[in-house]
Amino acid sequence: MSTPDPTSFLTMLPTLTSSTPEVPAVEANATSCQQWEQVHHMLFHLGNLSLLLGLLIPTTLGLHMILLRLLLMTGCSLFIAWATLYRCNLDVMVWNVVFLVVNFMHLFFLLYKRRPIKIDRELRAVYKRMFEPLHVQEALFQRLTGQFCTIQTLKKGQAYAAEDKTSVDERLSILLKGKMKVSYRGHFLHNIYTNSFIDSPEFRSTEMHRGEKFQVTIVAEENCKFLCWSRERLTYFLESDTFLNEVFKYLIGKDITNKLYTLNDPTLSDKAVKKMDRQPSLCSQLSMMQMRNSMASTSDTDDVLNQILRGGSAGSSLHNETAVYTLMPMVMADQHRSVSELLLNSKFDVNYAFGRVKRSLLHIAANCGSVECLVLLLKRGANPNYQDISGCTPLHLAARNGQKKCMGKLLEYNADVNICNNEGLTAIHWLAVNGRTELLHDLVQHVSNVDVEDAMGQTALHVACQNGHKTPWTEGHCTNPALSWCQIPC
What CATH number is given to the structural domain containing 438? Predict the structure, then answer.
């Protein structure tokens, strides 16, 4: 076999070079397109328009992801039709089919997530009142109540917890139906009504100290039904979900505030409480911004509070609702310096009525005898004659609890002694009920008519006599000739 001569390749090279087609030289900044093709079919442009509209949908729109996927699928379908009918391009059609399938799968997933969740009828009221206002999704609520939660019942007279006997480590419950009574060593403290935690104070106070017993007795006043979580499993579940953990902290904190607020308050009848239950929930005003602030860092509480007090939140009712529950413990403890610093140059409304009872901070100060905070609030324009849901003014509460200094300050700021609450009781009725003889001497001089009758047709003198209390009138020491009681024997 002969070996090819290398020189033959050299002789062939010029021929190959001359047979290669020459590429025309292109001038700088000049297009290589000598002739543009005709405009594509309308389907092509409609497909691009659909993609453009999908990208322009604002992300603030609630259904923006679903609309985006629908428009992307529409665009892909138009491209498929265009490539198949008018271009006959297999690769363009295949890629758009792939895009169409991917977007369809994502759309199906989004629609599946938005499917209606069926919540048990017994739990629907709890969700609507407590969890839905905090933007807890139905699916998350179902997870919370479906795995380690049971619905239990108590018959009238049965005990949920016994003082110094029942452990607080076992459960956390929400009352779904009925009413329970809380007492301490036989003394009534308060009632628990539907859509309220039964043992929230114990849950909060024993988070760091296990093995303790209930310090109160909780008994069913009616046939009751309650939602019960295993405390250990609930705690583990909340640790894995930061948002839901903050929701529970908020709900439990507000429930404890309600219990403290209505503790041993004889001015609130069952009728008033039922009216209160029709009011919006305490947490219905909470914004997601405040929830995220709480979740972000607990060390920024003071900064957040100052921002809220100075109008940093979106909406006055929102920042008032948030700030008032931080100020209230300070007012109860008469920490007037701290309250004064927070209120300095703030936009907080000192007459803001909060909670289910719709009382102001001035009510709290008068009820607790916090004189310094009471004067501070009055100087900032608090209304001394503001009536809560039961018709009580701060003077009613001060008189009921015998807060002499608070009564004096309220009278200095023109508190009206003659105002009656929903039961027809005035401040002197409360003084007479509790036998506050020393305060009656001071208060009766401001009363225009001491013969005012309550809803039961009883005057303050009648009430004093029924309770076995001596008064300026029963002792014959009344010095005001205009008062008819001076001449009436008990």
Answer: 1.25.40.20
Are residues 341 and 304 located together in one domain of the fold? Answer: yes
What are 21-47's pLDDT values in tens digits? 555 555 555 557 777 778 888 989 898
Q: Give yes or no: residues 111 and 63 share one domain.
A: yes
Give the pLDDT confidence score for residue 296 in this predicted structure. Answer: 39
Report if residue 403 sits inside a domain: no
Q: For the whole prediction, is pTM greater than 0.70?
A: no
Q: What is the CATH number of the domain that holds 352?
A: 1.25.40
Q: What is the extent of the structural domain holding 377?
A: 265-392
Tell me the per-residue pLDDT of 241-256, one tens digit each, with 9 for 90 and over: 888 888 888 888 888 8
Q: Look at the chain and report how many structural domains it folds into.
A: 4
SS (H, E, C) the chain: CCCCCHHHHHHHHHHHHHHCCCCCCCCCCCCCCCCCCCCCCHHHHHHHHHHHHHHHCCCCCCCHHHHHHHHHHHHHHHHHHHHHHHHCCHHHHHHHHHHHHHHHHHHHHHHHHCCCCCCCHHHHHHHHHHHHHHCCCHHHHHHHHHCCEEEEEECCCCEEECCCCCECCCEEEEEEECCEEEEECCEEEEEECCCEECCHHHHHHCCCCCCCECCCEEEECCCEEEEEEEHHHHHHHHHCCHHHHHHHHHHHHHHHHHHHHCCCCCCCCHHHHHHHHCCCCHHHHCCHHHHHHHHHCHHHHHHHHHHHHCCCCCCHHHHHHHHHHHHHHHHHCCCHHHHHHHHCCCCCCCCCCECCCCECHHHHHHHHCCHHHHHHHHHCCCCCCCCCCCCCCHHHHHHHCCCHHHHHHHHHCCCCCCCCCCCCCCHHHHHHHCCCHHHHHHHHHHCCCCCCCCCCCCCHHHHHHHCCCCCCCCCCCCCCCCCHHHHCCC
